[in-house]
Design a protein that fits this description.
33 strands, alpha/beta, 791 residues, 8-stranded mixed beta sheet, single chain, 35% helix, 4-stranded parallel beta sheet
């Protein structure tokens, strides 16, 4: 450990003991002395008492201070004052409910959580359940949850006047003496903000006599009453398929059915939903009237290097069908510039009228600004073809409408829960108006390390795996915070030492004194027991918990993001890679007794695979192996073990068979200590093109390595790189929507220095990272490999 990184570590420990980190906010920590009060401290730093209280939630105004209490004092007085002086949200009179939902309370539910789930206020629930004014919420209570209609969403007929985003015209208005912005806004029946939007000077100063203003005029939307009907969910239907079926948006569906959970897209067969009756009638009309007019084919211009295989993959039609519709193709073949007829699968459309579900289709939500050209480009189909699957497009493209495409086109997109995810560049989508607050919980073990003794601290760190791992992760996280700060995003980070992983007492203390409702996410801790404790408490406030090194196989909580792909996922990805690369290779399996299940999985996939029996579950019978090795085909050998002795022995034996005439490659579905680079000869692994699944890859970004080395005086290890990647991923997602749950629905795979993330909602078991690398040794290097494209 270099002196520079050791100094950084010691200073880090000092900070951890007394404070937390707030990026893009100047502050100072103050240890309360005897006789000091909030009033005297505010005078010392020339900061208002209210501003100090903003950053010290556990202290109440007028409370006497305990000696040695650590206070955070904001030095950026102007900013702190603005923070405390924000106007309160204006109260809007609520209309009477249009209906009620019956809800039976479950264990540990809170009134706050119910109100958030149903998008109402706590007072609204109490109003119609008066027992809650005198009693606490209990398990088994039958509550009436009010549903209000005063929300406007695209795609849903509304009883309110919707405000369009762009005015249809402007009026020039000259300000008179003593007029106010409030009075002018009221005169033109618009808001003050709408006037400011087109008169930017009003953001800095008020209106003055003689000032000429541009007053926007908005079209009024005619009020229309909604008649609600009940729809019963069929097997394999999703929110997207139902929205497409009835021509409404997902937001509209959630508005009408607030009981639908926001954390998952799952729908149960037989579930009853509220749908606008008008949309049901429109759907029935489409089903009856559009099919006869649906064209049976569309014209397609052949591009360069197009093949029948590619056409079949893109449009689901066989070579014979294309030749039947296009006789010239039989004689001349496919030629660049040739126009041919492609069938629109009219019959498939007719058959699928009553089965618009995730088994037959994938779905896409139209975004703001997308027209015919943009949709055709983004979805890779002509607009004519798109209309054959979505007749509602005849009435025009609407933001939020759900379009469907045949399931066979899935390979062309990133799909999550049957939804085509838009390509989103998170770095270009940072909203600096958000200010995420993140808690970091790691076992630094400052309770047993003497930070005043540098040599003792160094020895202690080197001996402790938990401290080493935590410092590695946190050093990377610091670099990510500096990177995101440079992008203009302010982040409030509170870091705590969870100390021993054998007890959760410290974690309970931390969570008890923190207001979790203020947090956007919690990073850590590292072990299953601690994650469980944090997830349980955070779930009451719907706060996401990111587990850096725990997989969903170990525990399941619906608010946990498991950044570590499970062993099963790694195994699946490896077998998927082999399946795509496989042609006619000779598959051989070497597995010890502890890995029989994995051996059985491989044999189920490759029934003709050969199994090598082991002597004493430790060594290979070389003569028997020789009889199994093919001299005419490549030999692909799976080695499944966690025993270092067997791994070294087997790889050495396989390497002895690997010659110019006999090709042997080695694979495993589970990289573990048995394949450690310090134990197994790297030359042997390279000769065998050893291939394995991994949660990370080698760092190739020299700029990142240089920045880390400059800051910490040493090269980043895999923990530091992972800390950087996990923190950056979370912050970018929070900077996009400030909601990890919502962002995970619409953002697909993300990749950074050496780690990638693709979170899939596993219903009530949390969010699983399904992103895995396939790595391979080659010429003494390790690099990521991808399966060959199958033609």
């Amino acid at each position: 450990m270099s002196n520079k990184i050791l100094k950084t570590v010691v200073s880090l420990f000092t900070v951890l003991l007394v404070s937390s980190i707030t990026y893009a906010q100047k502050y100072k920590t103050h240890a309360v002395k005897e006789g000091e009060s909030l009033a005297s401290i505010s005078k010392t730093y020339n900061v208002a008492i209210e501003d100090i209280l903003v950053y010290n939630k556990e202290i109440k105004k007028g409370q006497s201070l305990t000696v040695n209490t650590i206070l955070i004092v904001p030095l950026d007085k102007k900013k702190a004052v603005v923070t405390t002086a924000l106007p309160q949200e204006e109260t809007i009179a609520q209309e009477e409910p249009i209906r009620f939902i019956n809800h039976k309370t479950s264990r540990k539910e809170t009134l706050y959580r119910l109100a958030k789930d149903y998008n109402v206020k706590e007072e609204d629930i109490k109003k119609y359940n008066t027992i809650l004014y005198s009693s606490q919420l209990k398990k088994g209570m039958e509550l009436k949850i009010p549903v209000y209609r005063k929300v406007n969403l695209t795609g849903l007929p509304s009883t309110e006047v919707a405000v369009t985003t762009k005015p249809d015209s402007f009026t020039t208005y000259k300000v008179k003496r003593r007029e106010t912005l409030y009075g002018i806004a009221k005169q033109f029946n618009i808001s003050q903000d709408q006037i400011k939007q087109y008169n930017k000077s009003l953001y800095a100063s008020g209106v003055k006599k003689g000032m000429e203003l541009r007053i926007p005029h908005y079209l009024e939307v005619i009020e229309e009453e909604v008649v609600i009907a009940t729809y019963t969910v069929k097997a394999k239907e999703t929110r997207w398929s139902i929205a497409n079926k009835f021509g409404i948006t997902i937001d509209s569906l959630l508005l009408l059915n607030p009981e639908l959970p926001k954390a998952t897209d799952y729908l149960a067969e037989g579930q009853r939903l509220q749908i606008p009756e008008r949309n049901i009638n429109v759907r029935d009309s489409l089903a009856q009237n559009t099919t006869p007019n649906t064209p049976s084919f569309f014209m397609y211009t052949i591009p360069a290097k197009m093949t029948f295989y590619s056409l079949e993959k893109a449009y689901g039609v066989s070579e014979n069908t294309i030749k039947e519709l296009n006789p010239p193709v039989v004689v001349r073949g496919l030629q660049e510039g040739m126009q041919i007829k492609i069938p629109t699968l009219k019959k498939q459309l007719e058959e699928s009228k009553g089965a618009v579900n995730a088994e037959n289709f994938i779905f896409y939500v139209v975004r703001q600004g997308q027209g015919e050209l943009a949709l055709s480009r983004d979805l890779g189909v002509t607009f004519t073809e798109l209309k054959t699957y979505n007749p509602a497009l005849e009435d025009g493209i609407k933001v939020g409408m759900v379009l469907k495409l045949p399931k066979y086109k899935s390979e062309d997109f990133t799909i999550k829960n049957s939804l085509i995810l838009p390509k989103i560049n998170l770095l270009d989508s940072i909203n600096v108006a958000y200010r995420p607050k993140v808690m970091v919980l790691l076992p630094f073990r400052t309770d047993i390390l003497n930070v005043n003794d540098t040599s003792a601290t160094k020895i202690g760190i080197e001996r402790r795996t938990d401290t080493n791992l935590s410092l590695g992760l946190y050093s990377g996280m610091q670099l990510a915070l500096e990177y995101i700060k440079a992008k203009g995003l302010s982040v409030d980070v509170q870091t705590y030492d969870t100390q021993s992983t054998k007890s959760v007492a410290v974690i309970r203390e931390i969570l008890a004194r923190e207001n979790l409702n203020e947090y956007s996410a919690i990073m850590g801790p590292l072990d299953s027991r601690s994650i469980q404790e944090v997830a349980k408490k955070a779930s009451f406030y719907n706060v996401p918990v990111i587990a850096p090194y725990v997989s969903e196989e170990q525990l399941g909580f619906k608010n946990v993001f498991y950044a570590m792909p499970s062993d099963n996922r790694l195994r699946e990805k490896m077998l998927e890679y082999v399946s795509k690369a496989y042609t006619d290779e000779n598959i051989i399996v070497i597995a010890d007794a502890e890995n029989k299940k994995t051996s059985d999985l491989i044999l189920a996939k490759y029934p003709n695979a050969k199994v090598v029996t082991l002597i004493d579950n430790l060594t290979i019978h070389i003569d028997k192996l020789e009889r199994l090795v093919s001299k005419t085909r490549e030999n692909w050998v799976f080695l499944e073990t966690s025993n270092i002795a067997l791994s070294k022995h087997a790889s050495s034996v396989l390497n002895s068979f690997n010659t110019k005439e006999t090709v042997v490659r080695m694979f495993t579905t589970n990289l573990n200590k048995a394949f450690d680079r310090d134990e197994v000869d790297n030359m042997v692994l390279s000769n065998l093109n050893f291939t394995y699944p991994s949660i990370h890859r080698e760092v190739s970004d020299n700029e990142f390595v240089k920045l880390y080395t400059t800051k910490f005086g040493a090269s980043p290890d895999k923990y530091a790189t992972r800390g950087f990647d996990i923190m950056l991923d979370v912050l970018l997602k929070l900077a996009y929507k400030n909601d990890m749950f919502e962002t995970s629905k619409i953002v697909g795979e993300t990749e950074y220095m050496a780690n990638k993330f693709n979170y899939t909602n596993n219903r009530n078991a949390g969010y699983t990272n399904t992103a895995v690398y396939i790595m391979q040794y080659n010429d003494m290097n390790i690099a990521e490999v991808n399966p060959p494209i199958q033609e």
